[in-house]
User: Fold this.
Amino acid sequence: MSTNSTPSGAQSEFRKLCVVGLGYVGLPTAAVFASRGLEVVGFDVNGDTVALINDGQVHIVEPHLDILVNGAVARGKLRATTEAETADVFILAVPTPFTDGNKPDLSYLESAVKTIAPVLAPGNMVILESTSPVGTTDRISQWLASHRPDLKLPHDHGEQSDICVAHSPERVLPGRVLLELTSNDRVVGGLTQHCAEQAAAFYNLAVNGRCLMTTARTAELVKLAENAYRDVNIAFANELSIVCAELGIDTWEAIELANHHPRVNILQPGPGVGGHCIAVDPWFIVDSAPDATPLIQAARGVNDGKPGQIVEAVKAMANDIDNPTIACLGLAYKADIDDLRESPAVNITRTIAWHIDGTVLVVEPHIQSLPSELTEMKNVRLADLQRAYDDADVIVLLTDHSGFRNHPPVPRADQKVIDTRGAWRKT
Assistant:
């Protein structure tokens, strides 16, 4: 398949877009295309989310997203629904988590395909944006064919198909989603050359970066490889932090000095790895090639083991304190967002509450209530930052929100601090 960044002979008029899944990727994507003048309808199974968007509001924290959504809704270019509608292009942006056995769970995606199948018409295009195991785009084509035997799908009919099916994985950073949706290069993989060209033509409506065409399978692996690469490098930093702790060395000073070498760029360690991508995507590669991925699996082991190291450090500090109060600062997996998906901070907080015969104060400025994993813990409660500083025997920084970085504690003589992010080391 051609890898040209400029499609030739592709359709240029796409009037209506349906985005299935209005979460951290789907809603910004819908808003961006609506801002380009397309009629956009967002489908979501959550009625509260739909109602909120139709009122011009948002349910996630992302800079400037509220302004973009409100404007698109006010202009009549964006609306949300719980019923599937006809469209020219369908983007699937639903979760693709993994099971307890680290196996891909494609049930949300299969449900999304079942939802849109009845309203598909010849000439439509279906684009998978959800990060997925290699071969998922082909499976979507097969699922569509099972629901719509009257349509020709590309897995079976190639360039003679009625429907284009493609994969273009999101490659955005929370907190910079709107900027990166338009500025980043886009990898576009089609089940056929025509599918790739059509998808590239569509993204060129909103993307200022290049649309790089390839096969669907290659596009699937590219996204997984990007996040596995980051996971492996984070694992090195996290393992180095464990070594430094054993040797009594300041981890961040050692990394800072090592990074003065012109060909060394060690990442910053933390309490583990979270989020919907980096902690998940490597397992998709492992599932496809378990015997060929020892390095990826080892990195996952290091990063999954880091939360336990933090818990043990807290237990050691609280061991000689009667009825201790532990302040856990931050639940989000990264700074200044509200995304708790696969966050090691949540796991650490829950484990501390389970093992400590005392009180756990949670400070997370981006949420209004505790997540379900913590509501069942009777000794866990939300608190503001000042109360945490005043009452805690042990302060544990888990997420380096700017509000925490800018207001470090002034520890009492009897107060202990664990800074898992190195945010306060120079204060």
Observations:
- The first helix runs from residue 26 to 35.
- The mean pLDDT is 94.
- The chain has 16 helices and 13 strands.
- The domain at 249-419 is CATH 3.40.50.720 (Rossmann fold).
